[in-house]
């Protein structure tokens, strides 16, 4: 049984995201439980991206930092030759985590991955991040399938 579509098929992810029926449905929170990536592939590891803009300025608002961090993540992933649809794993760090902050994050993740192939994600509440005023950080692993030789 081939679990993966052909690499490069229009509109089809080369990765398989699974939400087993015996686990709760995480999709409303913007992530999946399991990601399976096909090999051979190029792996791209993106360091934690915060909500600072290109000048290093951080908004004091959590939702603004989340939006900017996701834009920064998109830039970093693209620099590695990938797209957000190639991301299979996220690690999210949130200062002063709350249900309200989770709702902001969940909405932002669903908007970033609107086709329903949300990467797996671990959220870690933390007391502080690297910079004063930094409230959010996101790191990613992307997998880009290598073209098959004919």
What is the tally of beta strands? 6
| Percent range for β-strand residues | 25-35%
Please give the share of residues in helix: 10-25%
| CATH H-level superfamily title of the domain at 42-145 | RutC-like
Low-confidence stretches: 1-10
State the helix count: 2
Structural commentary:
With 150 residues, the chain is α+β, with helices and mostly antiparallel strands. The chain has a domain at 42-145: 60s Ribosomal Protein L30, Chain: A, CATH 3.30.1330.40. 21% of the residues lie in helices and 28% in strands. It is built from two helices and six strands, in the order βββαβαββ. It has helices spanning 62-79, 99-112; strands spanning 16-18, 34-36, 41-50, 87-95, 120-126, 136-145. The strands form two sheets. A four-stranded mixed β-sheet has the order 3-6-4-5. A two-stranded antiparallel sheet has the order 1-2. The model is unreliable at 1-10 (pLDDT under 50).
List the helices and strands and how they pair.
Blueprint: E1 16-18, E2 34-36, E3 41-50, H1 62-79, E4 87-95, H2 99-112, E5 120-126, E6 136-145
Parallel strand pairs: 4-5
Antiparallel strand pairs: 1-2, 3-6, 4-6
Helix pairs in contact: 1-2
State the gist of this model:
This protein is α+β, with helices and mostly antiparallel strands and 150 residues long. It contains 2 helices and 6 strands; from the N terminus they run βββαβαββ.
